[in-house]
Write a structure and sequence with these properties.
There is one protein chain. By secondary structure, this protein is an alpha+beta fold. It has four domains: 45 residues, no CATH class; 112 residues, Sandwich (Immunoglobulin-like), CATH 2.60.40; 97 residues, Sandwich (Immunoglobulin-like), CATH 2.60.40.10; 246 residues, 3-Layer(aba) Sandwich (Rossmann fold), CATH 3.40.50. The chain contains six helices and 32 strands. The protein has a six-stranded mixed sheet, with no helix packed on it. A six-stranded mixed sheet has the order 23-22-24-28-29-32, with helices on both faces. The protein has a five-stranded mixed sheet with strand order 4-11-10-6-8. Strand 22, helix 2 and strand 23 form a beta-alpha-beta unit. Helix 2 runs parallel beside helix 5 and helix 5 packs across helix 6. The protein is elongated, with a radius of gyration of 34 Å. The protein starts with a helix and ends in a 14-residue tail after the last strand.
Length: 572
């Protein structure tokens, strides 16, 4: 009996001792002990962590053509922001090319930006340089933000075209000597030389300057200067310069030569010349001088042609809602990024669809420019990065946030599971491992807690397309499976089942997007979703049969949470 009592006593003492020991939990930081009689209470605080995002990315291009040219310095600028509650420590930037190395392209591959405090952002500048050996191509930059505790940002991917160096050719296209009132050239009297400098090459000339000199003595500059700084001359551009001089009475030669020295930054693409005027030569008056440039072939320009009525007269609304966020993607050029695809497999007018829709979003529907993210011909990395970014922004903006997602491009179902995917321009239609699963987008956006989520898809998911399918050899189209929706979500889709999303060639838009824009234009954005759905169903279905001789019937799918209220939502 005594033995049993001793055993029970030892067990009780052991339990008390065990209960008093602090427990180890990897998800928590320092503990604080508080006495409570003979017991100890342990309180713990959650460890704070950083949350890094890349935002406000922009390509800085000196000549504004959005291309890295040979012999040109440019840069990628962006901000790294810490949305978390912990300090981001020893943050480094790593820059690499996702695709092949491009000859003649130099850039800084790494830089350290240090710690980033919560709610702090740091601006990053990545210098780029295309040297004289730069080749033609597309540089697919991958920019990683690496944090010392492994709390990295989602990588940024950016595609920038590269073009080889094209030389300028600077010449004196024309020149005229004149005097103040006309008459003959005389010693000790002012002579004006008007020169027309012209760039007759295909490339831009930088660091351009011009100097007048006299090979012979006893010549005097009468104007303000004999040197002129010009800066940049684009192909075919001209610059008119006036130089005033004379020769004194010690001058003995019958002619006065004037040398025109032209400089440019490379030092190889300027033609110097010497101009001569004879003494006693009869000249015109200065105010009668007219000189003309040498005729040269015009540089080929790409000029956007917007002929659709929805591209003009876009309504402008007052007021911007800071809680509205939009991601707009137009994927058109698939053949440019994938070998084996021809141009018929591109999505006609997808870039124009996305670009004009962005204009309506910012001008008519009350979105702030900084809350609208826009991609054309987007890779898988670019699409994932922006989907992740906008999901975080909407989540952190709270219950009043609204999210709008627009996509024009190829969609495709898995042939076995019939699961639908959005197809980035660098993803092969026969291998969907890197494609964007549509249900993943629905789930991610649904988890943001946004007050209103609108998804607009001018794409089909049957394997067909505006011109031909991404997998053109497929003889039978696949009916995609229906995806479940969650959150406050409405999805407007361009097609039903096995149909294709078709173009409206005359208007240079997709058929579905054209009528979407048309209704927003006519109503100045004051249209509810129920009315918009009826309008799209009627007009797209009818006009597709008239114009394309094929069925295209838009659909609207809604989550159970808004099944009774979505029709009264306003698009603005």
């Amino acid at each position: 009996m005594k033995t049993s009592i001793k055993i029970i006593t030892l067990i009780i003492i052991g339990l008390i001792t065990f209960e008093a020991q602090p427990q180890i939990n990897s998800g928590f930081s320092a503990s604080k002990k508080i006495k409570a009689g003979k017991r100890q209470v342990v309180t713990r605080t959650m460890k704070t962590v950083p949350d890094l995002i890349i935002k406000d990315e922009i390509f800085i291009d000196p000549n504004g053509n959005n291309i890295i040219n040979g012999n040109e310095r440019s840069a990628i600028k962006f901000k790294v922001e810490n949305l978390g509650s912990g300090i981001a420590k020893k943050v480094n930037i790593k820059v690499s090319l996702k695709n092949r190395q491009i000859r003649g392209l130099d850039f800084f591959s790494a830089q350290e930006i240090g710690d980033i405090q919560p709610n702090e952002s740091k601006e990053v500048n990545v210098p780029l340089f295309g040297n004289m050996e730069l080749e033609d191509g597309i540089a697919e930059f991958r920019i990683e933000v690496i944090e010392d505790q492994s709390f990295d940002a989602y990588p940024l991917e950016m595609k920038i075209e590269t073009h080889p160096f094209e030389p300028p050719r600077l010449v004196v296209a024309d020149a005229v000597f004149s005097t103040e009132s006309g008459g003959k050239v005389k010693l000790n009297y002012p002579i004006q030389l008007k020169v027309l400098l012209q760039n007759m090459g295909k490339g831009e000339a930088n660091g351009v300057g011009l100097a007048f000199t006299f090979p012979n003595p006893n010549c005097v500059v009468l104007g303000e200067s004999d040197k002129f700084t010009i800066g940049t001359l684009k192909p075919n551009e001209t610059r008119e310069l006036d130089f005033i001089f004379t020769a004194n009475r010690r001058y003995t030669d019958p002619e006065i030569p004037v040398r025109v020295d032209i400089i440019e930054i490379v030092g190889k693409y300027a033609n110097d010349t010497t101009l001569n005027v004879r003494l006693d030569q009869s000249l015109v008056a200065q105010n009668n001088v007219v000189i003309n440039a040498i005729a040269t072939p015009a540089t080929e320009l790409t000029i956007a042609s917007l002929t659709s009525d929805v591209d003009k007269n876009i309504p402008v609304s007052q007021g911007k809602n800071p809680n509205k966020f939009a991601l707009i993607i137009g994927n058109e050029e698939y053949s440019k990024y994938q070998q084996g695809l021809n141009s018929e497999m591109n999505v006609a007018f997808a870039r124009n669809d996305a670009g004009i829709f962005r204009e309506y979003v910012t001008r008519t529907l009350g979105f702030q420019d900084g809350n609208v993210f826009f991609l054309t011909d987007a890779t898988a990395g670019e699409m994932n990065q922006k989907i992740e970014l906008i999901s975080k922004l909407v989540t952190k903006s709270g219950k009043d946030a609204e999210l709008l997602f627009y996509y024009a491009g190829h969609g495709l179902p898995d042939e076995n599971t019939h699961v639908p995917y959005l197809i980035p321009v660098d993803v092969n239609g026969g291998n969907l491992n890197s494609a964007i699963r549509l249900n993943d987008i629905y789930k991610k956006f649904g988890e943001t807690g946004a007050n209103k989520i609108t998804i607009i898809l001018d794409a089909c998911f049957s394997g067909g397309g505006r011109e031909s399918g991404l997998i053109a050899a497929r003889s039978v189209k696949v009916k995609p499976s229906m995806e479940s929706l969650s959150g406050n979500m409405v999805v407007f889709a361009a097609t039903t089942g096995e149909q294709s999303a078709l173009p409206f060639a005359k208007e240079k838009h997709g058929m579905f997007t054209y009528y979407l824009l048309k209704k927003i234009q006519e109503s100045a954005g004051s249209v509810n979703y129920g009315t918009l759905a009826d309008y799209l169903t009627k007009n797209v279905s009818l006009q597709s049969l008239k114009i394309n001789q094929k069925d295209q019937d838009p659909t609207v799918t809604v989550s159970s949470e808004v099944s009774d209220s979505w029709g009264n939502w306003k698009i603005k």
